[in-house]
């Protein structure tokens, strides 16, 4: 029983990481109808940046905060410099840009930090928070951080004028411009937020999956599976999907298929959902008059 | 200074390489209303798009004397040009209230915004009843009311309307035009109004411009016999 709870808890911890990565994917998808395949490698690069800061002796939370801010700015910059010029190009051109970006970040990380697998610190060490030892302190902390990110993002989009303007710009760019919203900047800020969320995902994942330039490849795939499962046009469906995929993956890995093939579970989920329900569990059935 | 809020001279506009407007001249008086008339495909929508900077354009466009022909759509909106586009431009997935808040997006005078909410709800009580409803589920008439209200929340120096009567029942059209007249006469909001229904538009407007294939065929005060005759001949078909 305890072993089962333990598997459930580890699944939920990684599931939280998938959930916020899925949220980052959805944010860019909603504005551009494109899946940013470079999201994982951008997050990995941010995580290395944080590692470098802690390696220099910075306290964890200061390194965390600075990494989030720098990642935000980096995301804005990437959108302005690399993505923007292809805004009107065919979809395939953007896909190639994303693949190029992920190769560049992967190579850059390897070149700067090497390919060896490294430990990454967690601020949540020490004894488990809950008596049963089913869940390590890092797992508990990581779940809390993921939930906090989800809530902050929700509050931002729901309650702030900037969040409203970003939703408007994603839905109807022309009408947005006609009320004075700088649509181009909204997209850049979306990229910044996605990069910042990805950085948090990377920093929460790294103590579990360890730090190496390929650490986020699997995470991105699971996040994508979660997004497809929940509905790629619904942020909170996608986040739910992320958690569900994390738990499923872990239980399957432990009890059903073994951890070697559990990555294929993610692919099976993607294909299965696309066949059975293309809009995902919570994909929006648009209520609109025509 | 002249008494014109909008002055347009030699306006050309283009869709890609194709020229759609050829040297258009007209004006909207401060506090006045100019009707932009013409047959289907004459270039009325194109004129509004050119003024808002949604398409490539050349020529001299002045808003309150200030040249705006080189500005972006966002910048023109921030100067107080509120454009209610054809098709109404509803943010269909947002609520009625969120649509209205977007109209006030660039304003920082909270109290004034709250007063303007009251004001548009006074004109269109139906929007107040539906403020939490998803805007895409509103009827066509309600969406037109929402589009006009969203524009009013911008506190516009110039309100540009593209066929506000399009696809609506006569009673709804009458209600909307009664309110537009009130907004123009009582509040002094200047308007540039595109309309298929020429007699409605000429009732509201103090000036009219008739466009034929991208050129101004006639322009002048809307109440003269000449205007009516020219409109009828070239456009109403009798
Ligand atoms: N997006 C576009 N791309 C290319 N040409 C266009 C485009 N929109 C309009 N045109 C052309 O520009 C000309 C003017 O069209 P416009 O839509 O301005 O007419 P309109 O006067 O608004 O007509 P209606 O009364 O039917 O709305 C037409 O010849 C039309 O075919
Ligand atoms: Mg038109």
Counting DSSP E segments of at least 2 residues, the number of strands of chain B comes to 10
| N-to-C CA distance of chain A | 54 Å
- Mean pLDDT across the residues of chain B is 91
Could you state the oligomeric state of the chains shown?
Answer: heterodimer
Comma- or semicolon-separated keywords:
heterodimer, A: about 290 residues, mainly alpha, 11 helices, about 75% helix, globular, disordered C terminus, B: about 240 residues, alpha/beta, Rossmann fold, 2 domains, 6-stranded mixed β-sheet, 4-stranded antiparallel β-sheet, 9 helices, 10 strands, about 30% strand, binds adenosine-5'-triphosphate, binds magnesium ion
Notes on the protein architecture:
The complex is a heterodimer of chains A (290) and B (238). Chain A is mainly α and 290 residues long. Chain A has one domain (2-213). Chain A contains eleven helices and no strands. In chain A, helix 1 packs across helix 9 and helix 5 runs antiparallel to helix 8. Chain A is globular, with a radius of gyration of 19 Å. The termini of chain A are far apart. Chain B has two domains: 1-80 and 159-238, P-loop containing nucleotide triphosphate hydrolases (Rossmann fold, 3-Layer(aba) Sandwich); 92-155, no CATH class. In chain B, the strands form two sheets. In chain B, strands 6-7-8-3-9-10 form a six-stranded mixed beta sheet, with helices on both faces. Chain B has a four-stranded antiparallel beta sheet with strand order 2-1-4-5, with helices on one face. Chain B is globular. Chain B has 238 residues and is α/β, with parallel strands linked by helices. In chain B, helix 7 (170-185) links the parallel strand 7 (158-162) and strand 8 (190-194). The longest helix of chain B has 16 residues, at 170-185. Chain B has helices spanning 44-51, 73-78, 96-103, 110-123, 125-129, 140-152, 170-185, 198-204, 225-236; strands spanning 4-15, 18-29, 33-38, 56-63, 66-67, 81-84, 158-162, 190-194, 207-212, 215-221. The A-B interface holds A 161, 164-165, 167-168, 171-172, 174-183, 286-289 and B 52, 54, 72-74, 77-78, 82-83, 85, 89-94, 98, 101-103, 105-106, 134, 136-140, 150, 154. Adenosine-5'-triphosphate (ATP) binds next to strand 2 and helix 1 of chain B.
């Amino acid at each position: 029983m305890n072993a089962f709870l333990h598997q459930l808890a580890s699944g939920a911890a990684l599931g939280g990481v998938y959930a916020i990565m899925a949220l980052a994917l959805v944010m860019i998808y909603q504005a551009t109808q494109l899946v940013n395949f470079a999201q994982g490698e951008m997050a990995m690069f941010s995580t290395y940046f944080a590692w470098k800061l802690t390696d220099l002796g910075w306290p964890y939370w200061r390194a965390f905060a600075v990494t989030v801010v720098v990642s935000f700015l980096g995301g804005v910059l990437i959108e302005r410099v690399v993505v923007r010029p292809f805004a009107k190009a065919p979809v395939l051109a953007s896909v190639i840009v994303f693949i190029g970006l992920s190769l560049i970040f992967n190579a850059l990380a390897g070149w700067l930090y090497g390919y060896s697998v490294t430990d990454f610190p967690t601020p949540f060490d020490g004894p488990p928070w809950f008596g049963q030892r089913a869940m390590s302190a890092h797992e508990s902390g990581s779940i809390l951080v993921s939930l906090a990110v989800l809530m902050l993002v929700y509050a931002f989009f729901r309650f702030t004028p900037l969040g409203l303007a970003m939703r408007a710009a994603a839905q109807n760019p022309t009408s947005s411009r006609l009320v004075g919203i700088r649509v181009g900047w909204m997209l850049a800020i979306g990229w910044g937020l996605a990069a910042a969320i990805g950085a948090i995902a990377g920093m929460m994942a790294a103590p579990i999956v360890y730090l190496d330039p390929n650490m986020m490849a699997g995470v991105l795939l699971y996040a994508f599976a979660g997004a497809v499962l929940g509905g790629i046009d619904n942020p909170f469906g996608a986040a739910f999907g992320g958690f569900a995929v994390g738990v499923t993956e872990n239980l399957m890995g432990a009890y059903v298929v073994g951890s070697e093939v559990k990555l294929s579970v993610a692919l099976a989920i993607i294909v299965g959902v696309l066949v059975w329900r293309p809009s995902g569990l919570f994909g929006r059935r648009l209520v609109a008059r025509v | 200074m002249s008494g014109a809020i909008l002055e347009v001279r030699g306006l050309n506009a283009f869709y890609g390489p194709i020229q759609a407007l050829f040297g258009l001249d007209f004006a909207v008086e401060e506090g006045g209303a100019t009707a932009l008339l013409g047959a289907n495909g004459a270039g009325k929508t194109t004129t509004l798009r050119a003024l808002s900077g949604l398409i490539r354009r050349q020529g001299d466009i002045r808003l309150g004397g200030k040249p705006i022909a080189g500005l972006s759509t966002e910048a023109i909106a921030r100067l107080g040009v509120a454009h209610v586009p054809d098709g109404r431009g509803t943010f269909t997935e947002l609520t009625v209230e969120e649509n209205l808040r977007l109209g006030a997006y660039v304003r920082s005078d909270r109290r004034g915004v709250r007063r303007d909410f009251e004001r548009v709800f006074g004109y269109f009580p139906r929007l107040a009843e539906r403020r939490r409803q998803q805007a895409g589920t509103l009827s066509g008439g309600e969406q037109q009311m929402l589009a006009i209200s969203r524009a009013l929340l911008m506190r516009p120096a110039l309100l540009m309307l593209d066929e506000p009567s399009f696809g609506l029942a006569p009673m709804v059209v009458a209600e909307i035009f009664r309110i537009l007249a009130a907004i123009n006469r009582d509040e002094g909001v200047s308007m540039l109004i595109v309309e298929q229904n020429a007699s409605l538009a000429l009732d509201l407007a103090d000036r009219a411009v008739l466009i034929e294939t991208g050129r101004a065929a006639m322009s002048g005060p809307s109440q003269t016999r000449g205007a009516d005759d020219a409109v009828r001949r070239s456009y109403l078909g009798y």
